[in-house]
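Quick question: what would this complex look like in 3D?
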Amino acid sequence: MRGMTRIQRSLSLLLVLFASQGTAAAAAPESSGAAKKVLPFQDNYAAALAQARAAKLPLFIEAWAPW
Amino acid sequence: MRAFVFTDAGLARQAGRFVWLEIDTEMRENAFFRQRYAVQALPSFFIVDPESEAVVLRWVGGATVAQLNAMLDEGHTALVQRRQGTPPASTAAPEASKPAAGMSPDALLARADELYGEGKNGEAVAFYRQAVVQAPSGWPAYARATESLLFAALESHDYATCTEIGRAALPKLRSTASAVNVAAIGLDAALSLPPENAQRTALVTEFESAARAIVDDAQVSVAADDRSGLYAVLVQARSDAKDSLGAHDMASRWAHFLEQEAARAKSPEGRTVFDAHRLSAYLELGEPARAIPMLEASERDFPDDYNPPARLAVTYKELERWDDGIAASRRALEHVYGPRKLRVMQNLADIYRGKGDVSAARSTLQDALQLAQSLPPGQFSESTVANLEKKIGSLPNP
């Protein structure tokens, strides 16, 4: 895998995480398009922040990538 | 997480307690997010005070439903306390950068979470460490604090702390989901110690033994990708020991585990989650062709997803099936976006290079360089630009 140290590589596999400097396209399991029926996720930061402020609720953020 | 955890009915009680936001960090309009928040790995999860946009709690990597429920409860409580101005009993100023005498484990944890949330991993390690050292037996936050400590230390390349904390934590977390990550990080950190470290061999042996026991423990309820990660580190441990047969055997077990998990998936999406791990296992085994049927099925099921053809392109490159690799890359490029597009383009350039078409390789890399230079702050990477320039420079002259 391109330009990775062993630790970077194992981290990527270990955590299923792939920072922008990390891994090849081969090793990246987060798939897009998951049906989210339980938790009402939205995808606009400004709108979600405004809603959280208005409702006085904490904001839960999932930072992901379609890998 | 997206396919298995967030859809679990066990999280229903949390639905009204938060506003839920997903950020696709590859999208250009979300580039700001990486500048504002400490996204050092993906997936990352944040519980944020919307008034100040301060991170109350950060979590990196996967989690079971039980772990996520606990994390959400902790984050919710921490935010309520923050608003009421009644943080956990603490004698330290909120902006403290070092643990002070008299701070309770809860106060230490709260400050550690703040620092970790800001991406100040080194400072967070000091607070997390003190919290877990001081923690009384049965402290509810012990597992979460330990995992956060280990991630923060690993991100700081503080391998000695990882092994020290991991050794202390494993007996306490035996048969819990956290044990998998503790063993994996501990073994990973031990392997990352310099060869001249006198403790390295003993630590690797100790963590590898623990990891082998845990990876086979079916009683441990843990996310499949976490268990997969443990297999991956175990393969590395055998490779590190120059035990090629042992590495091959472990990779075989890893692939078998993943194939079983994929077969159990209740939907194509659930099955596809394992594609990348399975491809990695097959590559470790030196059997990339085993990935082709699964990736072809995924491409049929998800024709708009760039991942299956991108992974096929990697597979075909390994097999030196250059024209198939070029075709798969082109299909992937129709759908991929953001910084990840650079990876697909670089793989395509490698394929052209393997085929002997240096001109096409150069052209592809130059296009990639142009794209890399055009990415906005938050997605732009100096090292990526430098790597591309180096790669172009290394091509034979026409």
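Answer marked as accepted. Residues 45-55 of chain A form the longest helix (11 residues).
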